[in-house]
UniProtKB/TrEMBL annotation:
Gene3D superfamilies: Winged helix-like DNA-binding domain superfamily/Winged helix DNA-binding domain. It comes from the Bacteria. Signal peptide: none annotated. This is PadR family transcriptional regulator. Coiled coil: none annotated. PANTHER family: PADR-FAMILY TRANSCRIPTIONAL REGULATOR, TRANSCRIPTIONAL REGULATOR RV3488. Residues 8-81 form the Transcription regulator PadR N-terminal domain.
Length: 112
């Protein structure tokens, strides 16, 4: 999963958001590591929708401008959970290799 995809799904986890909110949330949650442009965001949203990870969740007009809302799907939540688990495992291995914690077996959870 790409970094922008990860942070877009993080932004949508727990609540629906419109495009500008997603831009703000991805930048805030990633502490500035991901700063998407609107064109990049909407291309990613179209791909995520096509892949079944998000879905449209309404539209409204605010100050004469349309706001399209999106929400994460069950499939998107499962993919995000898998990605988080993989990142946590990578971090555990990295810390262990740096001598900061014992390396544990992936299957048993016991120190090896």
């Amino acid at each position: 999963m790409s970094q922008p995809t990860f942070w877009i799904l993080i932004a949508l986890a727990g609540q629906r958001r419109h495009g500008y909110e997603i831009l703000q949330e991805t930048a805030a949650a990633s502490e500035g590591a991901v700063s998407l442009k609107a064109t990049t965001l909407y291309a990613a949203l179209e791909r995520l929708e096509r892949d079944g990870l998000i879905q449209p969740d309404g539209e409204e007009i605010v100050n004469g401008r349309a706001r399209r809302y999106f929400r994460i799907t069950g499939r998107g939540e499962a993919g995000l959970a898998d990605e988080v688990a993989m990142l946590e495992q990578q971090a555990r291995v990295g810390r262990a290799r740096l001598g900061r914690e014992p390396l544990t077996s992936l299957r048993t959870g016991f120190a090896v």
